[in-house]
Write a structure and sequence with these properties.
Blueprint (H helix, E strand, L loop, with lengths): L2 H6 L7 E4 L3 E5 L9 E5 L11 H22 L4 E4 L15 E5 L17 H14 L1
Antiparallel strand pairs: 1-2, 2-3, 3-5, 4-5
């Protein structure tokens, strides 16, 4: 059981912003900027690829509305949505969660982007393998 499961169960308090049958959104207690929101499915799965279609769709339906609310409440004109999967990808709580992080001046998410290049033959191979997996 993760801290998020305990929050969903009501064992640990949170600053709830939104809740429905499938999704809970609350303020992050260690925010990167004012209004940093966490959006979690009530389904307890560690990574996005393990989530049911129903839970994934429920999150997808509310993310834009929650992003608008964060922007309106904070005055932010820019924001990041961050979602990590696995410890190697910097996931700290092993329960699917999305961060909506307003960019307010220097406060917010800092991102390094170490871009590479995509070879045409590798692209063809990856497309083929991904399509087969679907």
């Amino acid at each position: 059981m993760t801290i998020f499961s305990r929050i969903i169960a009501g064992e640990i308090p949170c600053h709830r912003v939104y809740e429905d049958a499938h999704v809970l959104a609350f303020l992050d207690i260690g925010p990167l900027s004012d209004g940093h929101l966490l959006v979690i499915p009530k389904e307890a799965k560690a990574q996005l690829d393990q989530l049911s279609d129903e839970s994934a769709a429920a999150i997808g339906r509310v993310l834009p509305r929650l992003a608008r609310a964060v922007m309106q409440a904070t005055g932010a004109t820019a924001y990041n949505i961050l979602q990590n999967n696995g410890a190697a990808a910097h996931q700290a709580v092993m329960h699917v969660h999305f961060h909506i992080i307003p960019k307010l001046g220097s406060a917010g998410l800092g991102v390094g982007w170490n871009a590479g290049s995509l070879d045409a033959a590798r692209a063809k191979e990856l497309v083929s393998r991904m399509q087969a997996a679907l």
